[in-house]
C-alpha cells in the first residue's frame, strides 16, 4: 500500500454543532494525519464548481445551498491508502446505511447534512486538494 493524500470537508451541519474536534478525533484514531486544515465559508460559485459533477442531479441546488449555509473545515488527510481509508472512517453517504463508529453514523443528520465529504478516488483527491489548497499550506 502507498501513502496517499485525500481531501475532506467537515460540513456545515457539523461545524454548527461544534463537532469539528470530535470528527478530527475519529480521523486521527484511524491513523490518518491532518496535514492541512482551514475553516472557510464557501461561496455559491465555489460550491457549484466543487460539486460540478452533480450538476444534473435533482439535489444539486439544495446541496449547494446547504454547503454555503455556514462555515466548513477543509482538510488534507495523509496516510496509507488514505482515499479508501477515509471513506471507511466516514461510512456510507446515507447515515441510515453507515456502520457503527463511523462519522456519518455517529453525527450525520441526513443524506444531505451528512457531516463529512471525502474524495472518491486518488485522481479526484488531487483535483479537490488543488481547488482549496496551495502546496505551501500542506505540511506533511
Ligand atoms: P458528498 O460526499 O459530499 O458528495 C455529494 C453529496 O451530495 C453527498 O455527499 C450528499 O451529502 C449529497 N446528497 C444529497 N442528496 C443525495 C442523494 N440523494 N444521493 C447522494 N448524495 C446526496
List the helices and strands and how they pair.
Layout: E1 3-10, H1 12-16, H2 20-29, E2 33-40, H3 44-50, H4 60-67, E3 72-80, H5 82-90, H6 103-107, E4 116-118, H7 122-132
Antiparallel strand pairs: 1-3, 1-4, 2-3
The protein binds adenosine-3',5'-cyclic-monophosphate.
Residues 54, 59, 63, 93, 111-112, 114, 117 line the site of adenosine-3',5'-cyclic-monophosphate.
Question: What features would you describe in this structure?
Answer:
By secondary structure, the protein is an alpha+beta fold. Helix content is 39%, strand content 20%. It has seven helices and four strands; from the N terminus they run βααβααβααβα. A four-stranded antiparallel beta sheet has the order 2-3-1-4. It starts with a strand and ends in an 8-residue tail after the last helix. The mean pLDDT is 98. Residues 54, 59, 63, 93, 111-112, 114, 117 line the site of adenosine-3',5'-cyclic-monophosphate (CMP).
The percent range for helix content is 25-40%
Number of strands: 4
Average of the residue pLDDT scores: 98
Over all CA atoms, what is the radius of gyration? 14 Å
Distance between the termini: 18 Å
Q: What is the helix/strand order? A: EHHEHHEHHEH
